Known about the structure:
By secondary structure, the chain is an alpha+beta fold. Helix 8 packs antiparallel against helix 9 (300-316).
Amino acid sequence: MKFTIQMFKYLFFFITISLTSLNLSAKSLNFEGLSKFSMNDIQSITSVDVYSNILNINDVNKVLKELSISELIYEVSFKEKDDLFLFLVTESDIIEEIYITNNTWIKDDLILQNLTSKNNSFLTKNKIQDDIKTIKNVYKSKGFQDISIISKVERFSQDRVNLIYEIQENKQQKINSIKFIGNNFFSANYLNSIINSQSIKFYNFFKSGSNLNYYSFEFDKNKIISSYKNEGYENVKVSYMIERSSFNNNILYFYINEGKRIKIENIDFSFNENKVSSFLDNKTSEFIKKVKKNNYYYSKSLIDEYLDLYNSILVSNNIHNIIIEAIFTDNDDKLNLSFVAQEKDPIVVNKINITGNSITKNKTIRSKLSIEPGQYLNNFLFENSVNNLKRYPYIKDVETFTNIDNQLADITIDIDEEVKTGNILLAGTFNADTGAGVTFGIEDKNIYGSGNSINSDFLVNSEDLKFSLNFKQYPILNPDLTNTYTIFNQDNDYTNSFGYKASTRGLGYSINFRQNDKLSYGAGISFQAFKGHSAINSNTSSINDNIGNFENYQTKLSINYDTTNNYFYPTDGHLNRVNFVLSPKDISDNSFYKISITNNNYFKFSKSENYTFFNNNYGYAKSLNSKLKTIDAFGLGGLNFKGFDYKGIGPYDGNVYLGGNEYFTSTLGYGSSFIFDEKDNINIKFFLTTGSIWNSDYTSSSDIDIRASIGTSLDFITPIGPLSFSFAQPFEKQNTDKTRSFNFTLGTSF
Length: 750
């Protein structure tokens, strides 16, 4: 007991001594290096009383912290001197200009726009450190992992300086190869096809492999996770690692722990007793059918799809106080899934703030929103508004921030827009049908921030001289509706095919409505002034009927249903298109109607780079006068029927090919990217094509003579457009048909 009391006495003594020492260390503050600023300026920066004579080390630390983050102070430190805490201050200068030097790969503008330091702002040491981190991150996103940066400050005047960042870029790092470890369900080829990162390919001269970019790798990791979760692997785990060597041989590894594949054991719709059940019941059976079709395996995307659908149905029926949620209970490798109707207090939109737009007007952006202040906040409508904005060509991305207070929502919509919306295109083209050519175009996707666009296209090749001016308008409140106004002029040399030359000029208007990502409708009207010129000496009516001056009015209707996965070279999905053209009899010199039907089908082998396709085309035309002129008839051969020459199939009068009022083609084929990665858009195809063209008004015969060819093609995308090589050999043809085995196409015509 005595010993314990004695210990407490010693402990009390030491605590007293320590506190006394702390008080004894109390000193006043003094500042060295102040010239532009006074003690009053310093006092305005810090919460500590700098005029006090009783300050301790805690006060010093607070002053240090507050001064170091102040824009007025470039750098600050302190030392103890006698009875003072002496602060050594370097005052901030104003930045006159910021210079980036020795940068080759990345332009000044891209670096400067991300810096914390700006012209005519105070320069601080913290800003320089932040800038260096920012510049390194910009370079790392482009594959420069070993970047080094030196900052220099050069005095411009008494209180103004130039800030210089000297960059040593070193070598840009690329991904040489990508490897997947632990993947059993998905093949490496499939995983390669869904991620953005690409390895260096010896066969692809137009792609050099992805940059070594860790931000992109994180995105790829999440893509792999999502793909597994959509196939029932809810507990999948993915990580990545870069193996770098001194020879710049960088290998990207993805390590995958698939876990167990999970099935849905029970599905319960807890809203059956709720007042919303009548709106949703017809969709519950649809969901169950899709789950059953998926063999009851869990699919996150399917569940999210129906959650969005259920909640959108409620919104459309003006139900804003109920939300449908999905609740899971885990039972080993099986899940119990419940859709529950949760009541909630409706949230009202208070304010909508638009930020980030320097070109596009606020009213233009607000006109595209499905929500407005005073309405109930609904996540479906809100997300729909964001997605609507992303569809416009002048908007790169959209971020949203929502602050809710007392059931009132303040929404901020931050726009990442295309600041430079004007483009100039100059490209060379080669088409096996029309020969070499040049295209030139000027475009502005966001005229004066209105959201409307204008473009002019010019094309010249061995057979065509075309010019068009198009103005595209997006009506307020509907991003899926597009009005297009066109003025055009073109000269065509049809000497080799139809025996004459022609000039056409006119104007048109079209409207296109996109109902969803798959289905769209179009309608249009146009006026054309046509002039045909004699090209060869012939008395045949098929040529002479196209010589002279004609005025035509046309109306056009179209329906397009497209579920394909790639615009240029699809490997999965369907394309169904119907086009109808009418040139009315009473107001047109050449009166006719035409209907064209496209039915293309692509069937991809499951989780494979191989696919089959079955493509069909049919056209029918009929004159409302006496004869359908060859200028308005269909042509077959060349790129639309490989193995035959351009418009080199069908009725022939001894001088020229006449085209036809009716045609069809069917192509059955097999495609694969087994030699290449699928995402390189490089395909090898083998195909068999059959078809015919017949029923010209300039012949008495209406016989259908079947043609057929077999061939192969190599197709891929280049920086200047699609490139295609094909070789096809006819094995069923007529004596008058012109054949052509090899086709080569490069570039895209307007």
